[in-house]
Write a structure and sequence with these properties.
Low-confidence stretches: 1-31
Bound molecules: CIS-heme D hydroxychlorin gamma-spirolactone 17R, 18S
CATH architecture of the largest domain: Beta Barrel
Shape: globular
Structural class: alpha/beta
Mean pLDDT: 94
């Protein structure tokens, strides 16, 4: 048996320095290639290739502590994944305040115009495991940790402004119902199954959120194109102790964008990491995603005037009724250095608030205040999880809490209790409470206490489960309404229990009889009578702000988007260069696709390298495509299924297609019909700024 060579120095040791309180969380690499590979005890390692054996071909010795330490550590690399929101992607950045908000909050991050506060933001899907794909139909988590100068504030929201349930006690039921079914362990990351819809049908309070979940919101184009919401009503409290109710909104400067269901499904196969990759690559290339933070601020009187309860997380306050006031922006400008250390170990807790921010009595929020802290102990294994660099405050912090698993701090002196008078003896006495600067809970209204007594009760004001669901559906663009109806048909078609489908249909009649009829027709099932309601269903004014398609945040732009340019041998060099230049000029990213990754020889005799091979770069990965082929190139690709599919999917997914004249036979073979989104190569950049929603009836039968 050949003996392996034995390199004498280890590569890139990645020695970490522990960040102190308030220090930079960046993990510093050691001295790079020249540093010596060591054990965790710091002992230099001479051979990282071979175990210690008794003789060249003999058994391994128990004495090999180098091997044992390495394997021991490896065996314990995984920690429990999050029970929900397991799959996530995150980035560092900053929040910048637009103005001094001290009139309504004493929170330090809003105290002056231009003030910057570091943030760490994690986006996630909810139902799937950590290794699931990025593009299932699912809600996206939108969690922001603000490292303020008075402690960490975690705004742990979603990309949808309402939630499935009103009371935290139903959360385990909801999550059990949506996750993989208990006996069979599937489906992974999918709500289209019996148990989820069984729960939904029996819990009409889910109806409003179901409308959102079945809309295009849950199949976003990228994580950069989602909105974020704090969902619950919170309080902002100023220095005088005056409280203002607020709802938090994050609006993407990139615009809102979605995929079509067929597209999302195909992306899952083509690139399971599509959204993670997109976020990472955008930030790495300097195209920093940005969101504007806004608030809907209101007082008790306004709250009391609404026909629904602001403590009910299944309700929104339409922007048309109460505009969103922009108060700052968040820019994500740095990728994590290490996925596990940061993205996996970050521990958000809605209970992490700062002076100037406070909770409302929303019963869903109240339950969350307990759950997250509890979950971190299980996941991270120690009450000292706050000392992990990504979780540690960036302001000074200290108290008399001591010891515990994995204590990283080395407190000095004897003062581990309070009060103490050690300072009088010249010793360090430790920190003290601050009645003036410290956090004080908002006292609340006297009436709230008067409602007292210990009650397990759902207030009357939470009883209307349908009016806002109706408002949401009726606010959508017709294209989105069709997608929503088709999504419900799709999901219910995967439900094998007929009585469950019927019950959901009966609930849908309350939302909108026409929607219910469309879904029933799509299922080829009779339309049942409306289910009983606990409160009369009202017709609220529609809210166009809720649309994606043709809505206020749908941007016609090349910026932040990626465009696939299909070339082959013989493609016109000038034409290819012109398209690349036009896309780049508009802020888009051109991506050259060729049958072979080494590239293609263009008409000028030069080889243009490809960014991706055709088989691995289907058009679902792009926002629009250009097909720039010579006659010969086109003839060759007519026999290549991936090329035909490239064009067919782009057309079916309502994308612009720019093409050379010679590429026409490929378009014909792919069934492309002429419309305003199918253009000459020269006009591609203009056409590629948007999707062609009007094309949809030509390519798809929707409910
Ligand atoms: Fe969560 N949720 N949740 N949730 N949630 C978790 O905390 C929970 C709810 C949200 O990127 C867990 O650290 C309960 C609403 C996000 O790390 C857990 C209830 C909203 C994330 C938990 C809710 C969210 C979580 C799992 C009902 C939107 C991921 C691991 C009262 C406003 C954060 C963890 C990240 C994560 C519990 C409802 C958003 C188990 C009990 C409503 C974005 O603690």
């Amino acid at each position: 048996m050949a003996k392996n060579s034995t390199p004498k120095s280890g590569a890139n040791s990645g020695i970490a320095t522990q960040a102190g309180n308030g220090g930079e969380t960046h993990q510093q690499a050691g001295a790079g290639d020249t540093a010596v590979l060591t054990t965790n005890q710091g002992m230099p390692i001479s051979d990282n290739q071979n175990q210690l054996k008794s003789g060249a071909r003999g058994p391994v010795l128990l004495e090999d502590f180098v091997l044992r330490e390495k394997i021991f550590h490896f065996d314990h690399e995984r920690i429990p994944e999050r029970i929900v929101h397991a799959r996530g992607s995150a980035a560092h950045g900053y929040f910048e305040a637009y103005e001094d908000l001290s009139e309504i909050t004493r929170a330090d991050l809003f105290s002056e115009k231009g003030k910057r506060t570091p943030v760490f933001t994690r986006f996630s899907t909810v139902a799937g495991g950590a290794g699931s794909v990025d593009t299932p139909r699912d809600v996206r988590g939108f969690a922001v940790k603000f490292y303020t100068q008075e402690g960490n504030w975690d705004l742990v929201g979603n990309n949808i402004p309402v939630f499935f349930i009103q009371d935290a006690i139903k959360f385990p039921d909801l999550i059990h119902a949506v996750k993989m079914e208990a006996d069979r362990g599937y489906p992974q990351a999918a709500s289209a199954h019996d148990t989820f819809w069984d729960f939904v049908g029996l819990m009409p309070e889910t109806t409003h959120m179901i409308m959102w979940a079945m809309s295009d919101r849950t199949i976003p184009r990228t994580l950069r194109h989602i909105q974020g919401f704090g969902i619950h009503t919170f309080r902002l409290v100023n220095a005088e102790g005056k409280s203002t109710f607020v709802k938090f909104h994050w609006k993407p400067k990139q615009g809102l964008g979605s995929t079509l269901w067929d597209e999302a499904v195909k992306i899952a196969g083509a690139d399971p990491d599509f959204q993670r990759r997109d976020l990472f690559e955008a930030i790495a290339s300097g195209d920093f995603p940005e969101w504007e933070l806004g608030i809907q601020a209101f007082d008790e009187e306004f709250a009391d005037s609404l026909p629904y309860d602001v403590l009910d997380s299944t309700k929104i306050i339409p922007e048309e009724l109460l505009p969103v006031r922009p108060i700052g922006r968040m820019v994500l400008d740095r990728n994590p250095d290490n996925f596990f250390a940061e993205t996996e170990q970050v521990a958000y807790c809605p209970s992490n608030i700062v002076p100037g921010v406070d909770f409302s009595n929303d019963p869903l929020l109240q339950g969350r205040l307990f759950s997250y802290l509890d979950t971190q102990l299980k996941r991270l294994g120690s009450t000292n999880f706050h000392q992990i660099p990504v979780n540690a405050p960036k302001c000074p912090f200290g108290n008399f809490q001591r010891d515990g698993h994995m204590q990283m701090q080395v407190p000095q002196g004897r003062a581990n209790y309070e009060p103490n008078s050690l300072a009088q003896a010249g010793e360090e006495g430790g920190p003290r409470e601050s009645p003036s600067a410290g956090f004080t809970s908002f006292a609340g209204r006297a009436e709230q206490e008067e409602q007292g007594g210990k009650l397990r009760i759902r207030p009357e004001s939470f009883a209307d489960h349908y009016s806002q669901a109706r408002m949401f559906f009726r606010s959508l663009d017709p294209a989105e309404q069709s997608h929503l109806a088709s999504a419900v048909v799709f999901e219910l078609s995967k439900v094998s229990l007929e009585h469950v489908r019927t019950r959901v249909l009966a609930n849908l009649v309350n939302v909108d009889p026409e929607l219910a009829a469309r879904v029933a027709d799509g299922l080829a099932m009779p339309l049942p009578k409306a289910s009983a309601t606990a409160a009369p269903v009202q017709d609220f004014d529609v809210s166009p702000a809720l649309r994606i398609v043709r809505g206020p945040l749908e941007l016609d732009t090349l910026e932040g988007k990626k465009f696939g340019i299909l070339i082959a041998d013989g493609s016109d060099a000038a034409e290819v260069k012109a398209v690349v230049a036009a896309v780049s000029k508009g802020g888009g990213t051109p991506f050259i696709v060729a049958p072979k990754v080494g590239g293609a020889k263009l008409s000028d005799g030069k080889v243009m390298a490809a960014d991706g091979q055709l088989a691995g770069s289907p058009s679902v990965l792009f926002d629009a495509v250009a097909v720039l082929l010579s006659e010969d190139g086109c003839n060759t690709l007519l026999k290549e299924g991936a090329a035909v599919q490239f064009v067919m999917d782009a057309f079916g997914h309502l994308k612009a297609i720019g093409h050379s004249e010679a590429a026409q036979p490929l378009l014909d073979k792919a069934g492309v019909e002429a419309d305003e989104g199918v253009v000459d190569a020269a006009k591609f950049a203009d056409a590629a700024v948007k999707r062609y929603w009007d094309r949809e009836p030509k390519v798809r039968i929707l409910a």
